[in-house]
Amino acid sequence: MLHDLTLEGHGTRLVPLADEHAEPLSAFVDDCLWAGMSSPTPGSPAAMRSEIRTADAAPGRLAFAVVDAGTGVVRGSTSFYDLDLRIGRVEIGHTFYDPRWWGTTNNPSCKLLLLTHAFETWGCARVAFRADARNARSIAAIRRLGAVPEGVLRSHRLAPDGSRGDSAYFSILPDEWPAVRAGLEARLSAAG
């Protein structure tokens, strides 16, 4: 869904995902980076524009471009999705970053911004994450957040080639949020 929410902190800005982000995003997306996603690799600006329009049209999804607050360089994209404020839940995902930002403060700053908004502005009772069960890198990043593993949904994902995959689910609840926030802030302080 189209939105005007912008979040900023720790050198990172999350801005509404738009066509202008297609070219810089498609410059680093390849089959390896896109593995585990449920759509074909958007490796050209035109394909990425289509992906962006699909994201913007999805009900309950607020898609963001992840931008360096100082330089404006596009680092990647992430989203809130399956948003239902009536019952206080949201998922965070559809996340991908330029590999040059892997292992930096980029992901912790993005997750701190998103989780702070979910828990402290929206008052969510549950924030969930899911990843293809074969995606060890994403699962390790979710675990580093302090999200609690909930299990695996079998044959939950459909890949562009028609193959099926499992989804590993994790969540954070309000009473867990202070420890998660402290852990993210400590990671950012140690790097800063």
From TrEMBL:
**Which portions of this protein are annotated as coiled-coil regions?**
none
Please verify whether the record's keywords include Chaperone. Answer: no
**Highest rank taxon of the organism:** Bacteria
Q: Which residues form the N-acetyltransferase domain?
A: 13-147
Q: What Gene3D superfamilies has UniProt attached to this entry?
A: 3.40.630.30
Q: Which UniProt keywords apply?
A: Transferase
> Which InterPro entries does the record associate with it?
Acyl_CoA_acyltransferase (IPR016181), GNAT_dom (IPR000182)
Matching entries from PANTHER family are given as:
BLL6696 PROTEIN, N-ACETYLTRANSFERASE DOMAIN-CONTAINING PROTEIN
The name under which this protein is listed is: N-acetyltransferase
